[in-house]
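Here is one chain, start to finish.
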Amino acid sequence: MTAIGNANGDGDRDDELGVSMDVADDDLRMTGTRHSVLAEVFDDILAHFGGDDYADEIAEARRQFDERRGRVFEDEELWEPWTQAFLEWYVTEWPLSRDGDGDGAKLPAAAHVAREAESMGQRRRAAAAWAWHRSHRSIFEVRALKAGRVELLDLYGGAEFSVLEERTMVGVSAGDVGEMRVIGFEEEVLFARTFCFHPVDARKAIIARIKDLRDANVGRYEILDTMASLRVRCERYRHVSPTRIYQADPTTLGQGKLGPR
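Its structure:
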């Protein structure tokens, strides 16, 4: 199994952050499957850190997310995957402006909850929250679909992942390229909820664009943002072939420099 590191940077995890989550003081209720435990912990984190007390925080996070990747509207096909990707990014990667105990450490919500769960002796809950914090978001190629497994290749770092997935991935085929998040939890690699696939007929152009960006020493997250913004442009410029969009300088789109398909 490929190990998943902390995509957010390692911090001092021994500090108490004093986050109260109003949960049971034991681990007895965390008895479900890996997927159900991860989902429950994620939903608990979001319910707390996405509530009214954090309205300004989540609004600023969404503003920056849209600024970096492109804004998507509710009536568009990308709305649901875009919103899910944002919520996971907010929980796992966005450094909250509140630093908990005043030591200056601004950590994502998942790390706050992991520390609090550890302090309360909630071992499985803490492990699940740390798994979210350390989850790995990248752009992957689907290499193979097997019974109960999906084989992925990270197109940025080159790592291979064998993901436990017992559900049928409808509409997904070997060779598809998309932004996904994977989680290492209890000796397995699992999918999170982020799935943003790129147009199938632009696969070669997408892979070439990623390689060019890597060769130019562009970082993983900037590449992800760039590719996401191009995916949005495919929705905006449907008269232009996706291949041309992924090959073009993004600044030329919308300026009459790309003719109709």
